[in-house]
Amino acid sequence: MSGEVSSAQATVSRLINQFGFDVVDAGPLKEGWRIQHDTPGYRPATDRREIRRDSGWARRYVDQ
């Protein structure tokens, strides 16, 4: 999840948790690209640690 408004992020986090999913804070919206289609962070992961690790490997399309 990426966002700029902490109160909105808290609301969305609660909703995601109610659905039974874990929330991983991806930082501000400008970093949301790290978990978009065709990046390492965009795949099924077993836990938060994997998502954080894989999104760190992401490269912008323009940089590939």
Written description of the protein model:
By secondary structure, the chain is mainly alpha-helical. The protein has 2 helices and no strands. It has helices at about 5-20, 50-55. The longest helix is centred in the first third of the chain and has 13 residues, at about 5-20. The chain is globular and about 35 Å long.
Q: What summary fits the major beta sheet?
A: none
Low-confidence stretches: none
Strand content of the residues, in percent?
Answer: under 5%
Distance between the termini: 23 Å
Instruction: Compute the average pLDDT.
Output: 81
SSE succession = HH
The tally of helices reads: 2
Round the Cα radius of gyration to an integer and report it: 12 Å
* Anisotropy-based shape: globular
- Helicity level: 25-40%
Count the strands? 0
Structural class: mainly alpha
Blueprint of the fold:
Blueprint: H1 6-18, H2 48-56
List keywords for this structure.
64 residues, 2 helices, 34% helix, mainly alpha
Summarize the structure.
This protein is mostly helical and 64 residues long. The protein is built from two helices and no strands. The protein has helices at 6-18, 48-56.
